[in-house]
Amino acid sequence: MTATFRQRLRAGEVVTACFIKTPAFQHVEIAGASGLDAVVLDTEHASFDPSQLDVCLLAARAAGTAGLVRLADQRPETALHALDLGAAGVVVPHVKDAATARAVVTMCRYRGGDRGFSNSPRAGGYGAIGMADHVAASDDAISVICQIEDASAIEHVAAIAAVPGVDCLFIGRADLALSFGVTQLDHPRVDAAIATIIEAGQAAGVAVGIFLPDDTTVDSYARRGVTCFVIGSDQSWLRSAATQLADRQSRVVAIPARHLADPAAPSELPMTAMMDMASSVTLWRQL
């Protein structure tokens, strides 16, 4: 039997995901088919209406990847909506203390929690999964990921990690930096907070995750004990690829058609372009 995303997270496996910020199921399918362990549909900082979230979670299932949802808030009804649609877990912003962490776990669990029951949506197989089986499967599979992104949370992070049902402490460097009054993600105060979060996760046997814009520092964070990496987003990947293409194209020198017929013709072309053109014509004549 294939391990669930939560089982892999709790086992300390390295898992990789990206944010999806465009409400387009195609982006989810592409990311999933590329081999990512999960996608995180970002309803906190991007615009997803209920039907778009529904289709994107369906696309995650079709692509064979875990569909996580970063919630816009900590309201139980917000989590319930995502879970009923079949989310494999939730990423909850601004968890600042153990009481909040307990409330987050409670809203995601049937047994010992207060998640409202229905097996009629996708999560319950549209009624095909019986009550007992649905409760057991959901409670076992749903990942609860708490974002630690406030200076005030650092003194409570050990207690947050110790809350039963918390599966991952997710480091939010940007908000952490702002909460410390700085704008450098590598500021010593931010790095010290990260070290505290990692230590708390390891002490409690809870995974630690982080968002990174690219994969250049993955190895260094992995050596520190981070195992869950959310790297970039569909939009940042698109921007990066488009920027690289535009940069390459800006260095291409157009060669007027008249020079292809007569390389000796007077030219305003740069010398390097003229030499390349002459070489190409010489090669052509040798064929």
Descriptive notes:
- It is a single chain.
- By secondary structure, the protein is α/β, with parallel strands linked by helices.
- The protein folds into two domains: 5-243, TIM Barrel (Alpha-Beta Barrel), CATH 3.20.20.60; 260-286, no CATH class.
- 48% of the residues lie in helices and 15% in strands.
- The chain has 14 helices and eight strands.
- The chain has helices spanning 5-10, 25-33, 50-63, 76-84, 98-108, 131-141, 151-154, 157-161, 173-179, 188-204, 218-224, 234-250, 257-261, 271-286, and strands at residues 15-20, 38-42, 66-70, 89-92, 143-148, 168-171, 207-212, 228-233.
- An eight-stranded parallel β-barrel has the order 1-2-3-4-5-6-7-8, surrounded by six helices.
- Helix 2 (25-33) packs parallel to helix 3.
- It is globular and about 80 Å long.
- It starts with a helix and ends with a helix.
- The model is unreliable at 271-287 (pLDDT under 50).
